[in-house]
Structures are given as structure tokens and as C-alpha cells.
Design brief:
Layout lengths: L7 H11 L3 H9 L3 H12 L6 E5 L5 H10 L4 E6 L2 H12 L11 E4 L12 E7 L8 H11 E12 L5 H21 L3 H5 L1 H6 L5 H9 L4 E7 L4 E7 L1
Parallel strand pairs: 1-2, 1-4, 2-3, 4-5
Antiparallel strand pairs: 5-7, 6-7
Helix pairs in contact: 3-4
Length: 238
């Protein structure tokens, strides 16, 4: 199996193609639990009313919307993604929010997670959902997050993982092969979702992620496994 990371433009193309089906397939991939995991992720980064927050690799905008609800109308949220198609859906969703909802104030920005278009020490909190696994330079992405966060600010990074338990690992692969990929195939996206397996195989988990965060400069980092280790959240403080 090829464990090398595909070029960035290939990954970008994948996320542009899957954008119309992304939310529905995320529900299938996580049995709908991704919504709870995202709420946990936002809670871990401790956004407060009036804060300025960042969601990197924002996709269709779930985490950014949760951040907006926490910071309120006095705060601000930026959602960053390099997929124009994902950002278009995110914008459509915020346009449908109630007139005075803080969700309407989210600023969607097409940008690279390895070159964030913000000054140093700009954000009070940050999230990243299902993005670290797909960036071409994981340490570089963490270094960029460190750069734009204020001192003592927290980033919470949610992603799928390979569980340590052999039985859960077997179940995870069975679920991908027999449920997720066939569902994607019905939408003409088989190859795009078959990509998940090699991305999991090359993704550092647990202590390896903690080590990367420390190398990026974060003062503390903890990895919290959830769903039997099939998911996890890396929480790092600048």
C-alpha cells in the first residue's frame, strides 16, 4: 500500500468533488455522532463571548457555526478551507441562518492551512476537523496554528484514527469497505472515499500527535481518544 501523502492539488480536487455529498456521507461515516464530537471539540478550545476564533479546514462549516454560537454577535469567526466548493456550501448554510444569528457573521476564506493569511497572535481559540490527516505537512500546519494563536490560546483538532484494539480496527475497516465506500459509490464518489483507508494508515495518532504539537511550539498537548480510539481530539495550548 502506498503510504505517501498525495499532492495538495489532488487532495483539493477530492474535496471539491465530494462537497455536495460531504455532510450526508459524514453522517454515515460517523453514524451521526460527528455532531456530538464537534460540540466536544469546540468545548475543548474554550471560546468565550467576544472572542475571535478560527476554524481551519472548515469544509461545509459545522465547527465554525458552533464557534459562532459561542462567541456571539460581539465575537468573530473565520472559516478557512482550500476547497472553493466546500466554502460555497458553507456560505449557503450561513445565508440561511436567522437574520440576527452570529452564524451570519462568519467570514469564509479560501486559503491554505500551511499559509494562513493572518497575523501572529490573532486568535483566541481555534479548531480543525478532519483536516490534519489530509494536509501535506502536518508539522507545518501545527506551526501555522501556533503562529496565529494568542499566548495561552487553545486549539482542538478532531479526526478519525486507527484504533489500537484489533477488533475495533477490523470493525472500522469493515465499516469503511461495506458501508461508507458503497454509499459513496452510489453518489459517484467511490474513489474519493476509498482514499480514507490510506489516509488513516499514514496518520500519526495518540502520542505521535502530541509530539508533533510540542515540536510546533505548543506548551502543552493532550490527545483524547474517543469512540474506542476510532476518533480522537488533540488539544494543544500555546
Amino acid at each position: 500500500m502506498n503510504l505517501s501523502t498525495p499532492p495538495a492539488h489532488d487532495i483539493q480536487a477530492i474535496f471539491n468533488r465530494i462537497a455536495p455529498a460531504y455532510d450526508a456521507l459524514n453522517d454515515r461515516l460517523s453514524l451521526g455522532l460527528h455532531r456530538i464530537w464537534k460540540q466536544m471539540t469546540v468545548k475543548w478550545c474554550s471560546p468565550a463571548p467576544g472572542d475571535t476564533c478560527l476554524d481551519v479546514c472548515c469544509g461545509s462549516g459545522d465547527l465554525a457555526q458552533l464557534l459562532a454560537q459561542q462567541v456571539g454577535n460581539t465575537g468573530s469567526v473565520y472559516g478557512i478551507d482550500f476547497s472553493a466548493a466546500q466554502l460555497e456550501i458553507a456560505q449557503q448554510r450561513t445565508d440561511q441562518a436567522p437574520p440576527h444569528s452570529p452564524v451570519r457573521q462568519i467570514q469564509w476564506v479560501e486559503a491554505d492551512a500551511l499559509q494562513l493569511p493572518f497575523a501572529e497572535n490573532f486568535f483566541d481559540a481555534a479548531t480543525m476537523g478532519y483536516g490534519l490527516r489530509n494536509v501535506t505537512h502536518k508539522l507545518g500546519s501545527l506551526q501555522e496554528l501556533y503562529r496565529v494563536l494568542k499566548p495561552k490560546a487553545i486549539v482542538a483538532i478532531l479526526d478519525f484514527h486507527r484504533p489500537q484494539n484489533p477488533q475495533l480496527r477490523t470493525f472500522q475497516q469493515w465499516y469503511l469497505d461495506t458501508i461508507v465506500v458503497p454509499a459513496a459509490e452510489q453518489m459517484g464518489l467511490r474513489d474519493e472515499y476509498a482514499y480514507i483507508t490510506p489516509s488513516l494508515d499514514r496518520f500519526p495518532t495518540g502520542q505521535a500527535q502530541v509530539t508533533l504539537a510540542q515540536q510546533a511550539g505548543f506548551s502543552t498537548a493532550t490527545h483524547y481518544p474517543i469512540a474506542g480510539g476510532m476518533m480522537g481530539v488533540l488539544v494543544a495550548t500555546k
